[in-house]
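User: Can you write out an input/output pair for a complex, sequences first and structure second?

Assistant: Here is one pair. Inputs:
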Amino acid sequence: MKTILTEQQISLTIKRLAHQVLENHIDLVDTVIIGMQPRGIYLSDKIVEEFKTSLQGKPVNYGILDITFYRDDVRREIKVPNKTNINFSIENKKVVLIDDVLYTGRTIRAALDALLDFGRPAKVELCVLIDRRFSRQLPIQPDYTGKVIDALISQKVKVLWKEKDPATEVIITE
Amino acid sequence: MTLSTPHLLGIKDLRPSDIRLILDTAQQFKDVLQRPVKKVPSLRDVTIVNLFFENSTRTRISFELAEKRLSADVLNFTTSSSSVAKGETMLDTVNNILSMKVDMVVMRHSASGAPHFLAKHIPAAIVNAGDGINEHPTQALLDAFSIEEATGGLSGKKIAIIGDIMHSRVALSNIYLLTKMGAEVTVAGPPTLIPKYIKEALGVNVTYNVKEALQWCDVANVLRIQLERQSQPLFSSLREYSLAYGINRKLLDSLGKKIVIMHPGPINRGVELDSDVADSNESIILQQVENGVAVRMAVLYLLSNPDT
């Protein structure tokens, strides 16, 4: 097991990601933020907190999306669904999807499918804390990246949050 | 986490954790049904046949809608328009259908145990949509889902099941489910329509006085008199049944408390339930129907994996 990012580094990275998104989406007008269930919402919660601080109380459209019913591997394993909560329209909005790790790209493929069931967004962007380079199985790339890492397929990259796990850190395990 | 069984033949075979998983998954499907696009692609490579050897409107439509909302391919079969009328056995009929590569079977039959027989002989996942006077598991699951929605939980709740307990598969499935989930059950109705040793066998309270049951309960699940399953008269007339065991506004108002009224349908208005009760705001009968689709989606989704 090896730590790639410590809690302090993660906190700085989250601030940077939030500012990068705000640079491209002034005041988040016509922009909605969607966190990916289950583990992406720990990251999206923190990024949205940063938005709220920067925007001084202006409203942020923030929803969470569960893609269990849209997976392409349902036939191999039945997964238990989590809550989806998007109580606003995404029609013609710019959507920023937030997840912790981008690996094969299949989760994001399913998320794009699921999003279309809520309307036709003007644009969809992707923000991730960790981009596992060279391991994509679909042509999907992030727009905002916390850290790019090279890891073998046999290795696991995990983002841990102290709300749920022993400590906040990003680790790589064999 | 998956179900402990490859089929849904009855609530009797389910563990409390299975019931919890189905109800929690159903909640997510209920959310899907509130969206502008009420459909998910989960079962797009699954073919399901609805085998209805006995009449049904609500259950068949509910299953068909659930299957379509999951993007499954759906085949419908009813005995009146099939080769069963030409003398084909049930097993032959089903094997012929399965040889066309069908993955799941939803089945209703007037013989108790028919889906259990089928489960022993064919390789597809089977969902019991009602077998004779045995079980109707998806009805019990949707009733439980509706009770949780209306009262906030199952454990410790007092549920009265009123009417023809003897011939009701809904009653039996409900009793299994509610007692497994920690609710208290009282059955009420005429002595001739309540099995004699039900208290000892299933752990429910028995009363022959409907008012007493209503006074005791948080939720009353009212059942239809199943005249089609009674080979001999078990009470003198529907009018007399209605006077002694029917639920009307006056009776409800005399309780001095608010209870939830449920009915699995079809209602015989003026017999077991008066219109001013069935259409009142105590009644969650139409919510039960709505929840039925979400619950059946959950069951089909959780049973759709061939490897489990």
